[in-house]
Design brief:
The chain is mainly β and about 130 residues long. About 0% of the residues lie in helices and about 60% in strands. The two termini are about 15 Å apart.
Length: about 130
């Protein structure tokens, strides 16, 4: 069973639930796959748009990969107060554990931008002790 990780920045709640994908993994070839479901919730009083993402992915060998790009899964959702957006994506690693973290660039109505924190979350095998690396 995986854990749920969350962080809130200026009324933007980001909740992440990672899951190991054994059917898409091949440990003998050092290939491990995870999916993660993200809920982005507008807990504030202003409408905002998610403009871009910045992920920092670190495996157990301390190799770091950064992923920067517009939106998430091809979308730049606009959320009014009380609305949420959910998507699922994936991450391959060459080690049996790792950690992901990052930020979403948010633009509030009126044009002010800020970075909403994506909480650090552990990618681990189900039988492993859960921890953020």
């Amino acid at each position: 069973m995986s854990g749920v990780y969350e962080a809130e920045t200026r009324g933007v709640l980001v909740r992440v639930d990672p899951t190991y994908l054994p059917q898409q993994s091949n440990p003998d070839a050092s290939q491990y796959a995870w999916s993660y479901t993200v809920d982005i919730v507008n807990c504030g009083t202003r409408t905002f748009q998610l403009l871009s993402r910045h992920w920092i992915i670190t495996d157990a060998a301390n190799r770091v990969e950064e992923v920067v790009g517009p939106g998430v899964i091809g979308e730049q959702p606009v959320l009014r107060p009380g609305e949420s957006f959910r998507y699922t994506s994936g991450c391959p690693l060459k080690t049996s554990s790792g950690v992901m973290r990052g930020t979403y660039r948010i633009e509030e109505e009126g044009g002010e931008t800020f970075d909403a924190v994506i909480p650090a979350f552990s990618l681990h095998l189900p039988e492993a002790v859960r921890r953020v690396n």
